[in-house]
Each structure stands twice: as structure tokens, then as C-alpha cells.
Amino acid sequence: MSMIAMPTPDQKILDQRQEIISALQAALPAGRVIHDAAEIRAYECDALTAYRCPPLGVVLPATTQEVSAVMKVCHQLGVPVVPRGAGTSLAGGSLPTADSIILGTARLNATLEIDTANRFIRVQTGVTNLSVTGAVEADGFFYAPDPSSQLACAIAGNIAMNSGGAHCLKYGVTTNNLMGVKMVMADGEIVDIGGAHLDSEGYDILGLICGSEGQLGIVTEAILRILPKPEGARPVLIGYDSAETAGQCVAEIIKSGVLPVAIEYMDRLCIKVTDEFSGAGYPDVEALLIVEVEGSEAEIKEQLAKVVKIANKLKPVELRESASAQESALIWKGRKSAFGAIGQISDYMCLDGTVPVSQLPFVLRRISELSKKYKLEVANVFHAGDGNMHPLILYDANKPGDLETAEKFGAEVLRLCVEVGGCLTGEHGVGIEKRDLMGNQYSAADMEVQMNVKDCFDPGWLLNPSKVFPLEASEARRSGAAK
Amino acid sequence: MNKSAAPVSEGEIAEIIKQAKAQLKPVEIKGGGTRDGLGCPVKTATTLSLAKLNGITLYEPGALTLVAKAGTTLKAVEKTLRAKNQRLAFEPMDHRALYGTKGEPTIGGVVACNISGSRRIQGGACRDSLIGVRFVDGNGDILKNGGRVMKNVTGLDLVKLLCGSHGTLGVITEVAFKVLPAPEREATLAIANLNTSQAIDVLSAALGSPFEITGAAHLPHNKGGALTALRVEGFDSQVEYRLSRLRKGVAAGLETRIIKGSQHDKLWRSIRDVEPFKNTSRCVWRLSVKPGDAPAIQQQISTMFDAKYVFDWGGGLIWIEIDDIENARANEIRKILSNFGGHATLVRAPAKTRLKVPVFQPAAPGIAALSSSIRKKFDPVGILNPGRMVVREPA
Fold first, then answer.
1. pLDDT band at residue A1, thresholds of 50, 70 and 90?
2. ipTM > 0.95 for the complex
3. Is A463 inside any structural domain?
């Protein structure tokens, strides 16, 4: 059995299943409620596939008013609601419990307003991340946060997890690019926060909502900042024979005053697997950096010259500037398909801890020692500029005990990340995956104050209640919810 | 009688707050005291000064990270960063010109009021650079949120909640920032004699260009004629390139000149700190709006009364100076704004006006209720800067 526990479902709610489904059907247009056992299966897990549980039912509302109607029913009947974007969460953020309703954003897929003069786009939150850029690309704009799953993942989930991506060293993460939301509260009330203007009046409620993992409300519309596309961009590949030297190179580049849009790192195993998968043409080295700069042709040349000079001082095994747009695309294809490529050769657990950049070499060395201790291979691929690591622990789901070993290994790595001054999760969210480790980063009082804030939004603890906070810490609040 | 405490440690602050809570004696929290006029006036018997809780606790240029205790002066932070060619991305405004105050702003004060400057449009606000806080809440509990790494989604983001809460949710004791490299050079393309509507169009076009505009302002009452300013940054050749592309592009056919060196620095300090409105006692409003609405807002105001304007953030930030001190024209300004959206803050007015007129934009009922319940969770008996953000707090 796997290690992460979920609370026992509330029998009273299970017994009321038919009544709840009927109430939802009565509140919504036809076809919005899914309750057939076979169809519900599609919603039993997200991208953390080791954990599965069919929900009580699934609703797919198409408007804010419909979301409000769902929340009113669930609020009245005391039914937990688990919000779900595209279901790409690696942290189990949208894992249901048997007594919960999944509220999916799949039908909230309209682009409502594009305003390039004021540099924003207003969308329903079920749209995919990449489609936002797609909607404004012809006008010369883009939406900056670019998680690897951007082809599939929904803006709703990006807001819930405050998603990042490869280019956030320069452009920031979701919270830095979110200007406003329309949100349905736990009791069905609809509120507007922020807008086409900057910064909040009063408390920064918008800042609270972003990254709140669906625990404060259901965000149905978002106003997102769009940025003018740079004239051009070009990556350079730099290979070193040790993680230490690669780490030093990252720090030297940043200290020099050049701010690349991305600095990505891959280790030997990851390079090998992604290269075979994508044909990116990566060199066979211990540590590979992809450093990308942006601007006009002259600007790119000047910045790359600075980067190359720094890199050369540290004696790289290989250094290769992309020679064409095609080659650049291929280099990024390799990096962005890293998770998929590893997934083709093995089951894996993807960690997401962030460490201070100066601690990267130390943490990498410790991970390789732990890899020997637990006898599980690790592929490392991550955003080096901001210290957001992604160690992928390879295991065999069919081998009894392997997942448990991988989870123990992962927990030890994440505790290490916190010990050296970092955090449990840089962009994937806590979900259930890191829930029981929260006590390593935050004191009981630190968590209590966060739960106090949830109380203000969701006094009955019906929204995604079994996530983020260790179950024993949230027990009193959740059992209140069951009444 | 006004008592003043100047604790040297977080533990000492926690003790003071615990006592204040037990005795139901509110405290006013003070940084450098340079922004005392910001927010509704607070009247308490006790002042809690953060001046002695100072010092930079960590600075790693290679990780773009700086951590400082709240009472550290902004001057000290900026000096430390400058020595390594780095800076705070959000270019915090200095309110001393507007208020005529003395002393040194503290980094904790900057965070408590979420103070940003002209670069906010490109580099984000103070809240965007802030990656961690430590604070003492109204129970006297020492708490932390976020940390020292720039990507961190562990738990609820209270960092942003604390930023801009004007000391009403906790006494901020330590702050951590993501910092950025400073550019080699900055320069400005100045365009002469545009009206507001033309100016906002040019600023908007420039902000939609790939030249990473870090300042986009319009000064209609500039001596010698209206001035529209576009700031670019980067290494030497990059700045030249960007200026020339802007000149031939968005400013084609207009009367332009390039401003560099100390004149450039002076210009942007003046815009950031709203120096055109210094040394007067007239009321000053700060409006955050959709940039394209700026000309119409100015037009509607001008049909009702005389005012002076400074436009920043491509038109998204409007500073308005008006004559009426008594009511600060609050009803008129907020009425006009309600046609457009955004928010209006009464930044400068006599204390008696700020006791009467809501300084901050009154929130919609749902949000006001949320804010009030959050406040009660952090400060159950209401001892931290009571009345700073709303004129009359619900008991």
C-alpha cells in the first residue's frame, strides 16, 4: 500500500449520493453532470497516477453562474468539492475522495476579451495555457508562464498552483502575470478581484488566491498580463564534466549582470533519455546547461558573447550556440519533453523542491548518494537560474514496495531542500504529495495562520479539504465540515 | 501620554504585542516615519518603532537574493545592491518630496505599503519581488511565510497578503527579495507637446513593442511644454538600438530628444516621487486604472474642477493634485472612476480630511467582508494600526 493517506469518506454523504446528483442536475442545464460509474473513472486521478479514487460525481459547468449553482448545492448539502483544471497536477491537487464532487473547468473555454493596447487578455479559466499565447500571437504578444505541460494544462490549474515554467527567471510565475479574477466562493457568491488596472486596493486578495490550490474559491475568469514578443531568442548549450562547475557557471552568469530568460539544467541520464526521445542532438556530458537570451540579432550576439566568455573560463566539455530557429526549437523540444521521455522508460516520481542556487551542487551530490542508498535511479532536470529542482526518481510501479521506497527517497530529498534554505515545492504545489511534509517547512503556528485564512473563505472546509495541510492539522476543521 | 518602544529583536516585539493585546492597548507601527501621511490617521498611546531592528541578514548576488530586517533603511539596502551592480526591480517611490518629511524610509515600511515606482510596469510591484516575510501577528505569535528562494508555492501565499497591509495584519520583522542585475545604462526618449490622448497612444504603442520600456510617463504641466517620456535600459549598444527603433517607430514624425546621464536620473526621480506636486498643501490622489482610460478620466474630471496631473505606467497610474482640501473631491473622483474601474487612493490630505473621507478605495461588500474577517484572524482585538486602512473599523 502506498503511504499518503486520504480521510475516510463521510458515509452520510455516500448514502445521499442520488439526492446530491439529482440536486446538481436540477440546478444545471442537461449534460453537465456525470454520474455513470464508467465515465467517472476518467476523473479518478490526475498526473500523480499512483493515487486514484472515483469521486461521487463530476460536474462540468460552462458559465460562472453554473459554477455558482453547483457551489450553492454543495454548500447546502455539505458536499466537498475538488476543483480540476486539465488534470495535469503532479502533486495530486485534483485527486478526489469518494464523498466529493469534481468540478471540472473543461467547458469554461471561451476567450472573452483581447486588449493589446492595454496588454491584457480575459479568458474563462478552462482554456489551456498555450492557447492564451495562441490567441495573441498574431498581434505580437505572448503569455509568459510556460509550464512544460502548457499544451494541456488549464489556466485554472495554473492559478491554483501558481505555475512557473522555464522562462520565469525573467518573466516571473503565474502570480506575477495575473491581474484579476472572477471567483465563485464556497457558498456560491460571485466576486471580482483586480482587473485591467495594476495592484490591489486594500489587502492583496488576488495574491492569496493565486497558489491556493483550489482551497479558497473557484476561479472562473482570469485577466492575464500579456507581453510583447521579443524580436528573437537563442539558446546556447554548455556541457560540463561536473555538476559543481555547471552550478558555478550559473552563478557567474547571474552575477555578471546578464539576465538570461532561462537557464535549464540536465544531468547525464536525463540528457541521454531526452535526446533519444526528441533528437535534440544534446552532447554526452555530465551536466548540460541550456542558456537562452532574447532580443534583436545584435542584442542576442552581445549577450551570448558574455555568456560564452564566462562559460569558457570554466572549461566546458562542449559549447554550442544554436545555429537556426529549427535547432533552437529542437533544443527546447528536448527539454520540454523531458518528463514524457523519462516516462517512456520508467515510472517516475517528480520532485519540485527549490534550493538557493549556491546550494545546487551540494544538493545534487546528496541526491546521487541517496540514489545509491535507496537503489533507485534519478534523472535531474531543472530550472537552474532560480534553483527550482526536478529530480525524477525512477521506480517500477509493478514491483511491490518500489513506490514506497521512492516516496521515502523523495521525502528525504525534500527535507534536504528545506534544510539548506529552500522549500518543498517551487511550482507544482503541495497537493497530497507534499502535504505530510509541510511540518518540515512551517511550524504549527505558521500552518495555523494559513488555515485561519482558509476559514475566512471557506468556513465549512468544503473546498479541496484534504490537501496542502497535514490531515491531523486540519482534522478539527474538516470534521466540522462533515456536519 | 505617548509611549514609544524601539525593540531590538523579534522576541521583544512579540512580548510587546502580547502585552498590548492583554491590555487592549493599540500600537502604531513605525518604520522611518517618512510616509506617516499615507492611510487614515492612527491614534494610539503607544508607538512601536522598528528602527532598531535593522541589518542585512543575507545577500547572495549569484542567487539574486537579499534578506533584511524590517528597520534596515532603504538607503542601506540600495547601497549594498549597488556595490554588486544589482537593484530592487520595483524602484520604490520616496514619499519625502510629497509629504515634506525627513528621516530615512525603511525596507519594512516599503513592504508594509507595497511601494513601487515607475518600473512597476516592467519589473513588477514590491509584492512581486518579495519572496519571504517574518512577522509578529496581533496575538504576539512569531510567524513566517515564503522564504529565501524565488520559486516557492508551498502553502498559502501570505507574503503578498502582508505586503501592502499597512501594518494591520502583523508587525513585519524581516523581508526577503528577489533582486535583479542593474543595467549598464539607462536613457530616455522624450517627446514634446502631446496632449494626453496622443501621449497615451504613444506610450501604449511603445509598451507593446519588444524594447522593454521600463518607464512610460506623461507630464502635461512640464515647464516648457508637455513632456512624454519613454525609458529604456540595457547595455550600451542595446540602449542606442532601442532608442533609435522607438524614435523611428512609435515616435515617427514627432518632436523628440534623448535625455541621458544626470538629467535622465533627475527626470525619473521626479516622476517616481511626483515632485511636480511637492511643496504644496493641496490634496493628491493616486488612481490605478486601465491605461487607455486615462484621457477620458482626465476629460471627465476637467468638466467638474481644475486639477493637475502626472501620468505614469503608460497612463495606468494617474496622480492628481486638487485644490479642495475639505472633502478632497472624493465623491466626484470616485464617481467618475466608477464609470471605468480601478481604484483611487487619497495620498495627501490633512489628517482631518483623512478621518472623514475613505483614503483607500471602498471595497465591494463581499471583498470588504473577507478583508475584515482576515483582519480579525490576524489581529483579533484590533491592536495593530487600528483604523489605518478603513476610517471606522467594525467593532
1. very low
2. yes
3. no
